[in-house]
Amino acid sequence: MPRVSEEHLERRRQQILDAAQLCFARKGFFETSMQDVFAESGLSAGAVYRYFKSKNEIIAALATQTTVHLRLAMAEAVRSDPLPTPAELVRDIAEEVVRRSGPDGPVRLAPQAWALALVNDGAAGPVRETMHAMRDIWRDYAVRMREVGWLPQDADTDAVAKAIIGFLPGFILQHLILEDLDPETLARGVDLLVPVGKPAVR
Fold first, then answer.
1. Rounded to two decimals, what is the model's pTM?
2. Where on the phi/psi map is residue 174: left (φ > 0), alpha (ψ -120 to 50), or beta?
3. Contacts with 101 (C-beta within 8 Å, 6 or more apart), sequence order
4. Burial classification of residue 89, based on how many CB atoms lie within 10 Å of its CB (0-12 exposed, 13-18 middle, 19 or more buried)
């Protein structure tokens, strides 16, 4: 009997994750059962458990996968020339958030994963890894800001990264819950707080 290809295994794994994402986005982590995932994926319990031993394992995998597109978009922007200002960079990433935060969008899972990470060690690990990866990209951006003269040469780029990373979780929560914040408004606020290349108002 021919061995199952790696490509087939990955497709099946992604099929399960896609189904779980839809369930979690609609009902939330806690209200979704494994039976819901079985039904949405069209797979048997045995087929799903071959890839994931529990709902928490699925949640952990999704927590890592959810921000991949955001990280890729941000990493590309940080490497671009000319370097985008903080307001431009935050606006562009916020636009990506909006594109991926519809009723079944993966960004809707982020706040649920953050909350779960506070009480579940299995989810906490992947969430921490994702946050560290995002903060590393912000640190790279702070280094580039220093290189182009937007920050002093002795600037603590680690402190800058830890401060500025807060813009996006704040945007995600306001966009999803209050539904009254758009990327342009966020960018205007960041531009006022971090007026790169502009004289300070006296």
1. 0.82
2. alpha
3. 107, 108, 172, 175, 176
4. buried
